[in-house]
Design goal:
Blueprint: E1 5-10, H1 13-24, E2 28-33, E3 38-40, E4 45-47, H2 50-57, E5 62-63, H3 71-79, E6 84-88, H4 95-98, E7 105-109, E8 117-118, H5 121-127, E9 132-139, E10 149-156, H6 163-187, E11 202-203, H7 219-227, E12 235-241, E13 244-250, E14 253-257, E15 267-269, E16 274-278, E17 281-285, E18 287-290, E19 296-297, H8 298-304, E20 312-313
Amino acid sequence: MKNTRIVFMGTPDFAVTILKHLVDHHYNIVGVITAPDKPSGRGRKLNQSAVKKYALSENLTILQPTNLKNEDFQQKLQSLEADLQIVVAFRMLPKTIWQMPKLGTFNLHASLLPKYRGAAPIHWAIINGETKTGVTTFFIDDKIDTGAIILQEDTTISETETVGSLHDKLMFLGAELVIKTVDLISKGTVKTTQQPNLEEKFAPKLHSENTKIDWSNSLDNIYNMIRGLNPFPAAWTTIKNDEDEIYTKIYAVEKLVESHKYELGKIITTKKELKVAVKDGFINIKEIKLTGKKKMDATSLLNGFTFSDKAKVL
C-alpha cells in the first residue's frame, strides 16, 4: 500500500503540512511539483515556496514548471512513473496531467463541497457566518472543484474563529483525510459520490474591493468579515481624522450589541478603547495597523495617536 508512487503538487504552508504528514508516515513520494521561485522584497531576492523549502529538507525530487502544458515538463513528470497524484493548494491542471497516473489525481479542498468552490474557501465560510465547514478529497476533472467526492470531514466554526485559527484546524484535519484517501485508493476500495449540480456558495479570490469594510452593513456581517480576513489579507478601511485620510487594516475585534444614536462610522475613543458605531452596536477594535505604523493593539495606538472628535471611517 505504501509502495504506491505518489507525486505531490502544492505551494503554501497549508500544503506543507499535508506533504509532511505523508512523509512522516513513510508514503512513497517520488516527486514534488511546486511554483517557480519568485522575486520579493526590496532586494527582489528569489523566494522559494513553502513546499519547495520543505521538499529540499527531505531531499525530494522537485519540479517547478512555469507552464504546465510545456512538453519538456510533462515528459519529466511522466518519467517519475507516479501511480497517484495529490494536489493541495496548487494551480488548475491540464487534462494531460491529471489523467497521467493510473490511479488518478485527487485534490484536497478546504470546504464541504459543493459549497465554497474557488480560491478562498476558508475565508468565505467565516465571512458568510457559517457555523460548520470541513475538508473534502475529490478526483479532479476538467472544471474547478467539481469532481467526484471521495471523503469529507466536518468541523465547527466558533463565533470567535478567525481565518488564521480555522486554517490551521482544517490543515491538520486535511492531513488525516489525505492519508485515509490514499489508503482507500491504493487498496482499490475507494467509492465516490458525484457532486450535485447546484449553484452553491462560491469562494472567489480576495482582492482590495471585496476586503474593504462596508460600515453601513449589519454588526454581525461586519464582525464576520473582519474575523474572516484576520490575519490575512486583513479587512481594510480609510480613517478620516480631520484632514487626514489614513489607509488602515483591522485585525482582532469584538462586537458590542448596544443601542446608540451615533452616526454610522463614527469613531469613539477612551484611553483604552477604540470603537466604531454601526447598526445595532459597536465594533470594538483590539488590533489595528495604520499606514506607516506597525500592527499594534488599540491601547498602544491610543497612547501615541490622537483621534479628533469628528474622526470616522469611510
